[in-house]
Amino acid sequence: MDFSEKARALVQEQTAEWDLVGRNYEGLRNVKVKTFDFGDFNIDVQYNPERIVSSIAKVDEQSIEERSCFLCRNSLPAKQRWIPYGIDYAILVNPFPIFPEHLTIANVNHTAQRIFENFETMLDLASHLSKFVIYYNGPKCGASAPDHLHFQAGIKGFIPIENDFSSEICCREVRSIDGVKVSHWPEYQRGIITLTGNDQSKLILVFNKIYHQLQIAKHAEPEPMMNIIASFDRKTWTVHIFPRTEHRPSQFYDSGERQIVLSPASVDMGGLLVTPREEDFIKITEEDVIDIFEQVCFDTQSVLTLINKL
Fold this sequence. Notes:
By secondary structure, the chain is of the alpha+beta class. It has a single domain, classed as ATP adenylyltransferase (HIT family, subunit A, 2-Layer Sandwich), CATH 3.30.428.70. Helix content is about 35%, strand content about 25%. The strands form 2 sheets. It has a 10-stranded antiparallel β-sheet. A 3-stranded mixed β-sheet has the order 1-2-13. A hairpin with a 4-residue loop joins strand 1 and strand 2. The radius of gyration is 18 Å and the shape is globular. It starts with a helix and ends with a helix.
C-alpha cells in the first residue's frame, strides 16, 4: 500500500484543525531562501525561525534524561493525530515544517535512534511513501530526539540533491556490488555514498558493509555518525549516505558575529541549509558553507577509500 495520499490528507486535516500547525505551514509561504551557485550545482539557505527548537536542541545524556520524550504517545499534543504504519510506527505531521508536507514517522515504543537494524524499515517507508523522500538523522547528526527511533519525510522536489542526482552531472558510479550501483560525488563539497538498486535485500547487505567500514574508520558510539536520504521511483531505491565527522561546526559554538546557529542534519546535507536566525541567514557566505561542510563531512578521498574496502 502507498501511504502517500493518506499522509498528504493528514497534513491538510491537521493544518485546518490544529492552530499551531496551520500557522507554521502558512508561515512557509514567507520563508526566505537564498542560493549559492557552485557551477554544476546549487546550495540553498532557508531562513526558518520555527526550526530554532530543533537546531539548538540539547542532546547530551543529562538533558535527554531530564526532559520528557516529545515523540512518545503519552506526550503528544492533544490535537496531534496519526496514521498507523504496521504495528510499530505512527505517521505524524511535523508541526515545525521545512517542507509544505513534512512528516515524522515515530516508533510506537521508546527505543533509541539506531539505523543498523532499522534500515529495512527505511527502505519500506521509501516505497510506501513514494511521493516523499525519507530522512534519517543519526543520534549525533541532527536528531533532536536521539532517544526515540524515528524517521522524517518531506514531499519530493524540495532539496537540491534530488535534481542533482537526476541530472547525472555531479554523481559518478564507482562500482557495482551484487547488482547495487555504488556512486560518489566528486567536487560536491560533501563526501557522499549513493546506492541505487531494485533488490531490497542486496541494498541492505551493501549498506551493512558500509556501516561496518564506518565503524572501523571512526570507532563511533553509539553508532557511526551519518545522515541518510532515501527515495523510491520506478521500482528502484536511491539511498544517499552522508558519513559525518562532527555533530555541529565550530560556528555553532562561537559567540557574537562569528556565531552561526546551524546544526546540519539530512536536509542540510542534501543542499538545503536551514538557519533559524535571520542574522545568520543574512551573513552566511559561500565560504561559510564550504567551511561548515569541510568540518562535519567526510571528504571525497575518504569516501573513495571506504568504497574501495567494500
